[in-house]
């Protein structure tokens, strides 16, 4: 199955993570910056002791060597370990990258139990585990990292703020919003946000990316508690500002920005499951705006999000809006792909379903016969062929001409079409579940046609 088609049709609607090479660059940059701070004291707030080995970051020395030499040895070993993990990320082997970091912790923690560098290793493991959607395990590593960093550098260090932020993100991903909010607020204050002191603001001046990340997740915590469209819209400006800050600090393809967008998408999915249509619509529009900030309003990511909005409109009987959204998506995708690309066929498929629901049986039949042929027998995309069968049954019902047919014959043909429609809806429900948006939409239109047949 095409990854983009799977993404567009998936009920979870999680955006794809960043390209692996770009994610690896983000991982490498984060590791280098944080390791330097851990090894030499917290240069950003001036509380460190430099590289003398005499400060709180010192590791115990081995026989015949000073603590500074022991720390250099540990630092070199950890740098090599992180380099190897970066290579694994670049090759797409995230599991192996995490395993390398865990093996390093198993090896070095008994030898250097009080080393601040190990806190950074836990921090990097937490980031990769979050990227793998393993928040429970990520939270464990983030918590160990925070405890070690706070012990060595104090509660007001910018490095401690980084650890608070990572644990806050893990708690957010776990759904523990109250815990997340407390951690994120503390990090945000240290990083120069609200309630910041003049010293913390000065220390954080060189780290706008972390401040934007903390601000983004604080907005996301607030978004998780919103129950009306107005509340969603009220947060959109701040979310966009923070996404812009993340992009400027780390790049559009960074792991941290991709993770933030994925967590926002999780909230969007939760909103779509609510009974309030307005909340779901506002969340999808917000998602389109955020993706537009990252990759441009006519980007593929934004087009996929518009396709999702079109599907949401279709399932909720807002067919004119659905048609407009899917045409916008198709126009953007047409500039990137040939006409037979999966995503453009998918857009024509959705337009065919819209035509079927509107009663334009000729256009629906033409469009859906094409998409059914394209998606039939292609593994997970078989669900699209099943939905095409639903649309074709709807078109068959609409094609019955009440002028040409007698009343008895009309009712017979319509009943046959309804029976076929019901059968196809059940087949789709068995595949993706009765609660899926597409099944609910089809059931809605089945009810409308049943009333016509009476």
From TrEMBL:
Region listing for Disordered, in residue ranges: 1-71
Gene3D superfamilies, per database record: Tetratricopeptide repeat domain (1.25.40.10)
Keywords: Coiled coil
SUPFAM superfamilies per UniProt: TPR-like
Record field: compositional bias (Low complexity): 18-46
InterPro entries membership: TPR-like_helical_dom_sf
Protein name: MalT-like TPR region domain-containing protein
